[in-house]
Write a structure and sequence with these properties.
The complex is a heterotrimer of chains A (about 475), B (about 650) and C (about 350). Chain A has about 475 residues and is mainly α. Chain A has 19 helices and 3 strands. Chain A has a 3-stranded antiparallel beta sheet with strand order 2-1-3, with no helix packed on it. In chain A, helix 4 runs antiparallel to helix 5, helix 10 runs antiparallel to helix 13 and helix 14 packs antiparallel against helix 15. Chain A is globular. Chain B is of the alpha+beta class. A 6-stranded mixed beta sheet of chain B has the order 18-22-15-21-19-20. A 4-stranded mixed beta sheet of chain B has the order 1-12-11-10, covered by helices on one side. A 4-stranded antiparallel beta sheet of chain B has the order 5-6-8-7. In chain B, helix 14 runs antiparallel to helix 16 and helix 20 runs antiparallel to helix 21. With about 350 residues, chain C is mainly alpha-helical. A two-stranded antiparallel sheet of chain C has the order 1-2. In chain C, strands 3-4 form a two-stranded antiparallel ribbon. A two-stranded antiparallel sheet of chain C has the order 5-6. In chain C, strand 7 and strand 8 form a beta hairpin. Classes of the chains: A mainly alpha (about 475), B alpha+beta (about 650), C mainly alpha (about 350). At the A-C interface, helix 10, helix 11, helix 16, helix 17 and helix 18 of A face helix 1, helix 5, helix 6, helix 8 and helix 10 of C.
């Protein structure tokens, strides 16, 4: 039985009766429009925008390396030379996304798919020299090589699959290729190759020695790991209070707090989205299966939901992290693994309600395959509570990571807001208010913004509650 | 629809709930009152008993003699007696101290943490103590001792005996404990006759023998102490107040082992089954100047409060109580000290620096910074053998270079804020094992680079990182215990220092239990940690090649035959005049070989409330609290 | 109803088994077994000592057996229906027996003792917070529902969301740093549950020799003030929103219209009719709050040095104390499950429309 293909809806998961060529907004866009019409959500969106901007442009905002420098008659840009693959990818995604906003003909889903494709294209190109090194020098050959092969396969699938399933016009594809080609060539010829032995103070030392003729620095000339080794002063031990050089002060080991906070926003957003994504995927699959196949599957599934739901999340998190060590990616996975329960419950409730409806019966009578019924017909109706849950989920993931860092189980050298808060509490010579106030404020504002957006979404999507 | 659950019902339930809560609170209050009443009646019973004893004595008739008492004041109390002669001396007040971690159990032998042993040292007593200034042994429970030294030609005698016995089929263990085996060191102690435990029962030689047998009983969960005492062949009673310690083989710390033997009361600890003892948390009773209010009832979470032993056989200590609070949060502990809730505060370098700038704080407390002779040192250990292959650190030149790449003076200034002394070896610079001719390796990047180039590490492809002949980059992971900001600061400083030379360091913090497992399995590149030391440190476990097996303390697999020979000889040499130069030679060898990069000896930094007088720094650290006192006018905690 | 309860209790068993599986295998698969007890604070122990200790521990706790055997042993230990085990580790007959939560390896004490010491502190903390949260949430919910759409309604809503977004650890640190700090202002103690002289105090406050003495009860409450504040503020948002939503729903219902038509006063309508029905969702949620609070008190107990279940858990995890971690997670999950069951039963009791048949 072949799958009935509804033309023009590939990528548009929502409305089976509309085609992509007509411009009206999908239900999703309508909901988002309503949400961000509210004041609360707008305020939240502003702050999230600030954080996202910091996350994308972090190396340009706070960096010990100058943008442009003339030394010994030669021009160079240490900052650009030391960009990492992630930096480049984020920049690419940002600019492509910006450009896509001006293209009217696409809907949200298609835009998201295009951005994913850009990631799939740029990320491996940015890392291709490192991949060779990892392949040769890894300590766990089976695990790492297997993982790399798996990721490679997924990436290839995305590269080929997304354009094929979206069927965009030829003209569009040409424009796109022309825009991206220079980037691709640049990456192949001169891939990002950041040094593994950064010496942050060398530029300041060069300037003090008079070797620099002209220099243009970043607005905040301190990298997050720059511990000011050339500025040791026994009368002013770290942490230093806020001053002109260090607007938010320095932390215990000498690094500038504002710089660390800017770079930490990347980790915060990353953990927020990836953990919530993982939780969403697991929750949706489990919930869908439970809601559709009642009886035994439901019984088993409910037990699973109860198991993960009755162990308080923090206890489970602590157990996982403490016993499996700390690693950014591991932590994302673990936070995701411990928060899928809510999503599963929502999806299950919706599916239970809808499975007896006529349109589902019709789909089954037509002989559509299971995944089509589940994901194309039933799931879009469950989107409302899922969206709300995603918004709150990101907030709680950021909070979970901060809590772990605060308890001393977080990341090591990577900057994180919770880690700075931990320093405010751990052994010190008193209460360093700047270590406690600013990172805590950042966490609070971010979580608050996501909660505001979530509340606004909930009000927009559920007419009963708004009282209108 | 019936009104089943009205608002009236709600308030009724609330009222009922409130009443129940009040009843529960009243029960609590009764409980506490009952505890108090019971404590009072216990004290009354004790006093009644003492009165009765005195009355018995009076009835039997005492002669008041004007001659010298047969037992003099124990020499260990000379310093306390001197403190008492001070003009403003007064008894009374309390000392409130705080531990940074919870104490899990106070029962001796079972507890592993340092906090518990601080408390136990006030309740249990040993045969002798060291004078804090002269470092001589002074008798406490023992009045007198004789040491018989049979170490001359001991090895040959013992080998002959052992060979003969082996021919008969005995195992080494049985040979060691055979009654006819030659013995290297025999120490006879004469005990005081007037020592009583805090419940009034007199101490005799039986208690000493009981303690030894108790520890060596395999059913008692004290494997650490057992291993420590395995050098002793036997502890025998040679008279009602005399014991003899016999050692299997010569060991330079033999006297210390016997002298610091803490005597546990046989009538108390012997009354429990091994199972009961192993599971107990607060069974603490001894002959010391302080006692637990109830020797069996302490539970973790309860405040640890030692009361003065009114029945104490020796010179009574001045403080009526010693209180030990538990404040895990460091900032909270500092605030507690600032508020006067605790009297003693051991500070980290950062805290100390802040505190000495606070004039109010300085005005109301003493503060001391001193080199603790039993304080330890910090080091970086380079693993020379991993996964069956020698590592890059197996080359002496690499280790020397790595030491020269660290500016230790800067480390002391920046991380310890100057409150540490640079280390050149495992021996305390103030001690006698330290070799004064050993000069520390200088901070010299060029010389280090030259050494590394000699060893084959050069930047071959211009990426700023050193590579060896096969092109592998010089990178290693530096493992350290997590949760300690001082270690973290040090590791980050080392990372940046090595980056300048082209070596990639990956900081690797680990939880303590995983850390120790990795060390045991020698599954690490380099670690940074600290060792404690003593008045005289025995470096056998750390640097002797036999200790390089799995689980041994020579976890870097360091081997040097000359060092081995020197260590073995030093351990057998009883005469300090001959032994100390041997240790100094060891120091020179360790300096040359650099199995560790010896970093520094941190100083002890402590603040003590000013109302305590006669507080001073001695050669053993702070002087014992029994020598302090608070003049009557300044006492804070009165009855 | 009884059928329902029995059915739920029976269904709890596979859930409990699932919980034990998850927690046990997370710990079993991780590196770093009982290492903590093998080395003391500064790491100076001789190798023979360590060997002795390891052999001793293996014999006592069966640590050298394969993992699945250890798991089964543990499950048998905690179940009220299983094989009896005597001290030497031999198995007897299959009967009802007292569940034994095991012994904490680094501390050598039965887990049940440790839990019994820690649980009252945590329960005290949480049981103090629940009424406070309810009191404030209910009143603001009612108020917001009555004055829907006004500035006050919106502002309390936003205020509560912002309170909910405040990270607990941040608030705790700031409160201690600013309100329990001699340098700034000393309103509250820095931590712990009692002052140094607490056991000398009388129970209730009174005048002693002319000075006012706090008394044990007030002293404990004073120490609990900051922790309770930290635990309560986050709960307002959810409950007050729920209350508001329920009241709005009921205010639009038919029976209210009837009551108003009858001539019943607005106040009476609100408090006698609407309130009673709106409070139902809050009752059911009450028991469900407990798991969340238990999780939140981990951080608070850490910051304020209170010896409750949270601290015990963190210590246990840091020491890799397997028995203790398993038992605590098990106990906490059991409490959560029971409280969920309780809330369902309460719901059925409170609302006659609901039936579980």
């Amino acid at each position: 039985m072949s799958e009935a293909i509804i033309p023009g809806t590939a990528g548009s998961a929502v409305d089976p009766t509309r085609s992509a060529s007509t411009p009206p907004r999908s239900w999703l866009a309508e909901a988002l429009y309503n949400t961000f019409g509210r004041v609360g959500a707008r305020i939240g969106a502003v702050w999230i925008g600030v954080i996202a901007f910091c996350a994308v442009f972090a190396p340009f905002l706070a960096n010990s390396r100058p943008y442009l420098m003339k030394s010994g008659g030669r021009w160079s840009s240490p900052l650009l030379e030391q960009l990492t693959g992630v930096d480049v990818t984020l920049l690419a995604v940002f600019f492509v996304g910006l450009g896509l906003m001006f293209v009217r003909k696409l809907n949200m889903g298609q835009r998201a798919a295009i951005l994913l494709w850009v990631v799939a294209l740029v990320l491996p190109l940015a890392y291709w020299p490192q991949i060779g090194v990892i392949w040769r020098e890894t300590q766990w050959p089976v695990l790492m090589r297997g993982g790399l092969l798996l990721l490679g396969a997924i990436d290839l699938a995305a590269l080929v699959g997304i354009p094929w399933s979206m069927r965009l016009g030829l003209r569009f594809q040409l424009i796109f290729a022309v825009v991206l080609l220079p980037l691709v060539v640049l990456l192949i010829v001169r891939p990002p190759n950041p040094t593994r032995v950064p010496i942050y103070e060398q530029y300041r030392e060069m300037e003090a020695a008079g070797q620099i003729e002209w220099v243009l620095r970043a607005p905040l000339p301190y990298s997050p790991s720059d511990r000011l080794r050339d500025q040791f002063d026994p009368n002013r031990p770290h942490p230093r209070p806020p001053s002109w050089e260090h607007p938010l002060g320095t932390e215990r080991f000498g690094a500038d707090i504002l710089s660390r906070m800017i770079h930490a926003s990347r980790i915060a957003m990353g953990i927020g989205f990836i953990s919530t994504g993982i939780a969403l995927v697991i929750g949706v699959i489990v919930g869908a299966l439970m809601g559709y196949f009642v009886r035994w599957v439901d019984l088993l599934g409910m037990r699973l939901v109860e198991v993960f739901g009755s162990i308080p999340q923090l206890y489970l998190l602590l157990t996982f992290v403490a016993f499996f060590g700390r690693n950014l990616y591991l932590m994302m996975v673990i936070i995701g693994l411990t928060s899928w329960v809510g999503d599963a419950r929502f999806v299950r409730a919706e599916f239970l309600k809808l499975r007896q409806q006529d349109f589902v019966q019709a789909a089954r009578a037509a002989g559509l395959p299971l995944r089509s019924i589940l994901f194309r017909h039933l799931l879009p109706n469950a989107l409302a509570p899922l969206l709300v849950s995603v918004s709150f989920g990101v907030a709680s993931a950021i909070l979970a990571e901060s809590t772990l860092s605060f308890l001393g189980l977080g990341l090591v050298d990577e900057p994180s807001w919770g880690q700075l808060l931990n320093q405010a509490v751990s052994a010190g010579g008193g209460f360093y208010w700047w270590l406690a106030t600013f990172p805590g404020l950042a966490i609070f504002l971010t979580v608050f913004s996501y909660n505001l957006i979530g509340e606004a979404l909930r009000d927009a999507l559920d007419p009963k509650l708004s009282g209108e | 629809m019936e009104n089943r659950f009205g608002v009236k019902d709600f308030f009724l339930f609330l009222l009922l709930g409130g009443l129940i809560v009040l009843v529960i609170l009243a029960m609590f209050q009764f409980d506490r009152q009952w505890d108090h009443v019971r404590a009072i009646s216990n004290e009354l019973a004790e006093q009644k008993r003492t009165l009765r004893d005195i009355r018995d004595l009076l009835e039997r008739g005492i002669t008041v003699s004007t001659t010298q008492p047969t037992e003099q004041v124990a020499p260990a109390f000379e310093r306390i007696a001197a403190a008492r002669r001070m003009p403003d001396f007064a008894m009374g007040d309390r000392v409130v101290d705080a531990f940074g971690g919870g104490v899990a159990r106070l029962t001796p032998l079972l507890s592993g943490d340092a906090a518990a042993s601080v408390v136990q040292d006030y309740v249990l007593e040993s045969l002798c103590t060291r004078d804090p200034d002269t470092l001589e042994w002074k008798g406490l429970l023992a009045t007198d001792w004789t040491v018989t030294d049979n170490t001359q030609g001991f090895d040959e005698k013992y080998e002959a005996f052992a060979a003969a016995k082996r021919a008969e089929g005995l195992s080494d263990e049985e040979i060691a404990h055979h009654p006819d085996a030659p013995r290297s060191i025999i120490i006879d102690f004469k005990l005081r006759r007037d020592v009583r435990f805090s419940d009034g029962v007199p101490m005799t030689a039986d208690d000493v023998v009981f303690t030894y047998n108790f520890i060596m009983n395999e059913q008692i969960a004290a494997p650490r102490h057992r291993a420590y005492l395995r050098r002793i062949a036997s502890v025998e009673k040679t008279g009602p107040y005399a014991v003899r310690f016999t050692f299997i083989e010569p060991y330079f710390e033999a006297f210390e082992l016997a002298a610091s033997f803490q005597v546990m009361p046989a009538h108390f600890y012997g009354s429990f089954t091994p199972e009961e003892f192993n599971q107990s948390v607060g069974y603490l009773l001894g002959s010391g100047p302080y006692r637990m209010p109830n020797p069996t009832s302490w539970k973790p979470g309860m405040l640890i409060e030692l009361r003065r032993n009114e029945e104490y056989w020796g010179v009574a200590p001045p403080f009526e109580r010693l209180v030990f609070r538990e404040i895990t949060n460091d900032t909270a502990r500092l605030t507690a000290f600032r508020n006067g809730d605790i009297d003693i505060f051991g500070a980290s370098p950062q805290q100390y620096q802040e505190m000495v700038k606070d004039s109010v704080l300085v005005a109301r407390s003493h503060h001391f910074e001193y080199q603790n002779p039993v304080g330890g040192y910090r080091y970086i250990a380079w693993n020379q053998h991993r996964n069956g292959k020698p590592t890059a650190f197996a080359d002496k030149r690499v280790r020397q270079a790595l030491t020269m790449l660290i500016d230790r003076d800067r480390l002391v200034d920046e991380i310890m804020l100057g409150y540490a002394v640079k280390a050149t070896g495992p021996f305390n610079p103030a001690g006698q094992q330290h070799n004064p001719d050993v000069q520390p390796w200088p901070y010299d990047i060029e010389r280090a680079r030259a050494l590394l180039a000699e060893a084959g590490f050069v930047d071959r492809n211009g990426d700023g990182i050193l590579e060896d002949a096969s092109g592998r980059r010089f990178t290693f992971s530096l493992t350290y215990p997590s949760g300690n900001p001082n270690y973290e600061a040090m590791v980050l400083a080392i990372k940046d220092a090595y980056a300048r030379a082209g070596i990639v360091v990956q900081p690797d913090p680990l939880e303590w239990s995983i850390f120790t497992t990795r060390i045991e399995n020698k599954d690490f590149d380099a670690i940074t940690l600290g060792w404690t030391s003593g008045i005289e440190t025995d470096i056998f476990q750390m640097f002797h090649s036999t200790q390089a097996m799995a689980g041994g303390d020579n976890f870097v697999s360091y081997r040097n035959e000359e060092l081995d020979r020197l260590i073995e000889l030093a351990r057998k040499t009883i005469d300090p005049a001959k032994r100390l130069p041997l240790w100094q030679q060891c120091h020179a060898i360790l300096h040359e070989d650099q199995p560790y990069t010896f970093l520094f000896f941190p100083k002890s930094l402590v603040f003590i409330d000013k109302r305590f007088k006669n507080v001073k720094v001695t050669r053993l650290g702070m002087n014992p609290r029994a020598e302090w006192y608070v003049p009557a006018a300044e006492q804070r905690y009165t009855q | 109803m009884l059928n329902y309860i029995i059915r739920r209790l029976l269904l709890m068993i596979p859930t409990l088994v699932g919980i034990t599986l998850v927690v046990f295998w997370v710990m079993a698969l991780a590196p770093g077994g009982v290492g903590a007890s093998l080395l003391s604070a500064e790491g100076a122990m001789r190798p023979q000592e360590r060997e002795e200790l390891r052999k001793y521990l293996n014999k006592r706790y069966g640590l050298d057996q394969p993992k699945w055997k250890q798991y089964l042993r543990w499950v048998n230990q905690i179940s009220p229906l299983g094989f009896e085990v005597d001290d030497a580790g031999n198995y007897g007959k299959f009967t009802f027996k007292a569940p034994d939560l095991g012994e904490s390896m680094p501390r050598g004490r039965p887990v049940i003792d440790l839990v019994a010491e820690a649980l009252p502190v945590t329960l005290l903390l949480n049981l103090l917070t629940v009424p406070i949260i309810y009191a404030i949430a209910v009143t603001t919910g009612i108020y917001a529902a009555r004055h829907r759409g006004t500035a006050l309604d919106v502002s309390t809503g936003v205020l509560f969301i912002s309170l909910w977004s405040l990270p607990v650890m941040w608030v705790g640190v700031m409160l201690i740093g600013f309100f329990a700090n001699r340098d700034i202002i000393q309103l509250f103690p820095t931590g712990g549950l009692h002052s140094t002289m607490a056991d000398q105090m009388t129970f209730l406050p009174r005048f002693v020799n002319g000075t006012w003495e706090r008394g044990w009860l007030l002293d404990t409450l004073w120490h609990l003030a900051l922790p309770v504040i930290c635990l309560t503020y986050g709960g307002f948002a959810f409950l007050s929103k729920l209350m508001r939503a329920a009241m709005l729903e009921n205010l639009a219902a038919d029976f209210v219209r009837t009551a108003r038509a009858k001539g019943v006063g607005e106040r009476a309508v609100l408090f006698r009719h609407v309130l009673r029905n709106s409070i139902l969702p809050l009752i059911t949620v009450a028991a469900g709050l407990l798991p969340g609070l238990l999780g939140g008190s981990i951080i608070i107990e850490q910051i304020f040095s209170l010896n409750g279940m949270g601290r015990l858990m963190i210590d246990a995890i840091n020491q890799r104390d397997r028995e203790l971690v398993l038992s605590i997670t098990f106990v906490i999950s059991l409490i959560s499950l029971l409280s969920l069951l309780l809330s369902d039963i309460l719901y059925a009791v409170a609302d006659p429309r609901v039936s579980y048949e």
